[in-house]
């Protein structure tokens, strides 16, 4: 630690820098861009919420979570069935359980209930999953996704299953998604630097040493799992009220690949990494979108290419794992990079970089 | 009584498929610490290869063994192209690599072949039923069980009677020591992938015969169940993988019997709930030993 610099100043400065960059882009898009750009930016912020939520568990615990999309689904559907007007529900889900088709809540109450339910489910699954370690835990997390997906697909009275649940009130604006993202950036960084976050990172690097030092590894894993899942469910709520129409496949493979690629490309052990990864992948997908939709090249009308974006996401994951397994940023947060640059500019050797536990 | 026997046969024929897949996963995991997410894509590759051979007009007697051969070669190729560069990397790096490979293969088929399921021909006599007393058994079920037993016997012979087999068993214990004994690592790893591809190919032939169609994402659910089987049996144990697979078959068939038509669609959710519950009670699985906390 540099002399005289408070540990809070460094990470708060880093979070502030990230928030400022996101805030600027969020404010500039509606001025400079089209309606389509605003929609893309809103989607980008929602993805960012989910990828940062995922980072809280995966990045700090070192345990892969392939099942995180389950909580997007739980959040989205809970809020959707609660907030959608009675008049719509009488038509779409007249036989819904718990009398859900007979009342409607406002958006904020619905979102809050979705969040509480997600936390509850996260707590139960978190305890069960964290009875396992490492790869078995990852497989257990994936099982949670399959349980949730199967339930959403077959609980026809509540979700209409594959026939899609529609006319969900559109409540997610660019500004709402952006504000939530900024809050999540600070939460993610605060968690990483907190006592529990530090204990969790210590257990990731050496579980035995960490437990010898008094870290209750399973407890800190469950805490981060619940926090992570809660934030991901908020991303789900915002998705439901952005799209207006849901079907269970929205919360399955495609989004899993997308979010994981964002996290891994930028680097999962930092908060800055996922933001960089999400930005790069969003730009990359937008640039190649025309290609996937089947462009007209030299008068040739190419067919629509299903799976092309996913194909590239898979290639990105494989290449990142081969050439830079820790992601582009590795262990460095923006503040670490900033301090290094500062030191270099002032002719000092870069040993002024922080000594926080990586 | 007859119902019990009938369902036991069903459970055995389903469990055998999971056992074949789980054993391949455990084999690869034990030699190089890789959890191969792309294992399920071997089923898809076999399926599309069978479709291709059928289009070429090959007889059924040739298509089935050729399908298994393609699966074996594909597994070896997968290791050579994608997994050798990350060998020795942390487990999560390898896991994510295989996850990426899985996505690439799925979407390769989605891009090159149409996304809709395609019918694939299988021998008609697979579907004939044999009646023994009041029992009816599909030929396919008997074949699945017999082929699984035969494959396991061959595997045991290879593992016990050949040098490579000995090296593979030793590698499952301590890979670095095997290398110190002068055994080439590449040979052991390639052999493990070949075996996993061979077993997956056999499973694939039966899975495809049962479904009657192939699509780019067909490998996902079977491989997840195989994963669950390896965890259920005791992660990293070869006999555990087989027992976990068979046990998973028993759980599925039992649920099929008791769930009834209104809850039928939820079967997989219940399967994973039951397995999850068992693992909460016994985290180390059926045959595993409870180890220290790891990441």
Task: Describe the structure in your own words.
The complex is a heterodimer of chains A (358) and B (295). The longest helix of chain A has 27 residues, at 35-61. Chain A is mainly α and 358 residues long. Chain A has 15 helices and two strands. Chain A has helices spanning 7-32, 35-61, 69-83, 86-92, 107-129, 134-154, 156-159, 174-193, 195-205, 207-212, 217-243, 253-266, 272-292, 308-323, 334-345; strands at 296-297, 300-301. Chain A has a domain at 7-251. Chain A starts with 6 loop residues before the first helix and ends in a 13-residue tail after the last helix. Residues 352-358 of chain A have low confidence and may be disordered. Chain B is mainly α and 295 residues long. Chain B has eleven helices and four strands, in the order ααααβββααααβααα. Chain B has helices at 2-32, 39-55, 60-83, 91-112, 139-161, 163-173, 175-180, 185-211, 220-233, 238-263, 267-281; strands spanning 118-119, 129-132, 135-138, 213-214. In chain B, the strands form two sheets. Chain B has a two-stranded antiparallel ribbon. The model of chain B is unreliable at 291-295 (pLDDT under 50).
């Amino acid at each position: 630690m540099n002399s005289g610099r408070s540990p809070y100043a460094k990470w708060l400065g880093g979070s502030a820098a990230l928030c400022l960059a996101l805030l600027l882009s969020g404010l500039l898009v509606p001025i400079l861009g089209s309606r389509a750009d605003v929609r893309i930016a809103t989607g980008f912020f929602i993805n960012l919420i989910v990828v940062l939520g995922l980072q809280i568990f995966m990045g700090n615990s070192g345990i892969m979570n392939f099942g995180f999309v389950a909580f997007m689904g739980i959040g989205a559907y809970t809020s959707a069935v609660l907030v959608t007007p009675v008049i719509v529900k009488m038509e779409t889900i007249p036989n819904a359980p718990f009398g859900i088709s007979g009342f409607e809540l406002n958006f904020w109450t619905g979102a809050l209930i979705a969040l509480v339910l997600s936390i509850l489910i996260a707590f139960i699954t978190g305890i069960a999953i964290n009875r396992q370690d490492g790869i078995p835990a990852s497989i257990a997390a994936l099982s949670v996704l399959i349980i949730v997906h199967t339930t959403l697909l077959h609980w026809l009275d509540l979700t209409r299953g594959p026939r899609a649940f529609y006319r969900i009130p559109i409540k997610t604006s660019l500004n709402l998604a952006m504000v939530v993202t900024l809050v999540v950036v600070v939460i993610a960084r605060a968690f990483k630097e907190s006592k529990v976050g530090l204990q969790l990172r210590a257990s990731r690097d050496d579980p035995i040493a960490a437990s010898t030092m008094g870290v209750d590894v399973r407890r800190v894993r469950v805490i981060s799992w619940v926090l992570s899942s809660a934030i991901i469910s908020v991303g789900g709520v915002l998705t439901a009220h952005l799209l207006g129409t849901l079907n269970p496949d929205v919360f399955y493979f495609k989004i899993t690949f997308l979010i994981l690629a964002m996290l891994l490309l930028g680097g999962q052990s930092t908060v800055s990494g996922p933001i960089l990864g999400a930005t790069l992948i969003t730009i990359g997908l937008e640039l190649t979108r025309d290609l996937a939709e089947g462009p007209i090249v030299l008068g040739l009308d190419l067919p629509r290419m299903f799976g092309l974006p996913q194909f590239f996401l898979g290639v990105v994951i494989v290449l990142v794992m081969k050439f830079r397994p820790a992601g582009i940023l590795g262990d460095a947060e923006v503040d670490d990079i900033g301090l290094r640059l500062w030191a270099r500019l002032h002719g000092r050797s870069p040993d002024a970089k922080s000594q926080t536990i990586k | 009584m007859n119902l019990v026997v009938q369902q036991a046969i069903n459970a055995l024929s389903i469990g055998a498929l999971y056992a074949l897949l789980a054993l391949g996963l455990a084999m690869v995991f034990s030699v190089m610490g890789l959890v191969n997410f792309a294992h399920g894509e071997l089923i898809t590759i076999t399926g599309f290869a069978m479709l291709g051979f059928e289009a070429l007009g090959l007889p059924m007697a040739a298509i089935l063994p050729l399908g298994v051969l393609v699966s074996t070669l594909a597994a070896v190729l997968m290791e050579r192209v994608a997994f050798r560069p990350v060998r020795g990397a942390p487990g999560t790096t390898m896991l994510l690599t295989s996850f990426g490979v899985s996505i690439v293969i799925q979407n390769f088929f989605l891009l090159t072949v149409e996304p809709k399921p395609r019918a694939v021909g299988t021998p008609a006599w697979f579907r004939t039923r044999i009646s023994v007393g009041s029992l009816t058994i599909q030929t396919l079920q008997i074949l699945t069980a017999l082929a699984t037993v035969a494959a396991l016997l061959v595997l045991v012979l290879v593992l016990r009677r050949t040098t490579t087999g000995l090296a593979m068993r030793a590698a499952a214990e301590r890979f670095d020591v095997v290398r110190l004994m002068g055994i080439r690592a590449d040979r052991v790893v390639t052999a493990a992938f070949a075996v996993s591809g061979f077993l997956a190919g056999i499973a694939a032939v039966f899975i495809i015969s049962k479904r009657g169609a192939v699509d780019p994402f067909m490998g996902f659910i079977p491989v997840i169940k195989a994963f669950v089987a390896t965890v259920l049996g005791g992660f990293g144990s070869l006999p555990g993988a087989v027992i976990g697979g068979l046990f998973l078959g028993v759980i599925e068939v039992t649920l099929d019997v008791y769930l009834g038509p209104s809850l039928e669609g939820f079967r997989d959710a219940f399967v994973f709930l039951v397995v999850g519950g068992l693992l909460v009670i016994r985290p180390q699985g059926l045959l595993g030993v409870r180890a220290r906390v790891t990441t």
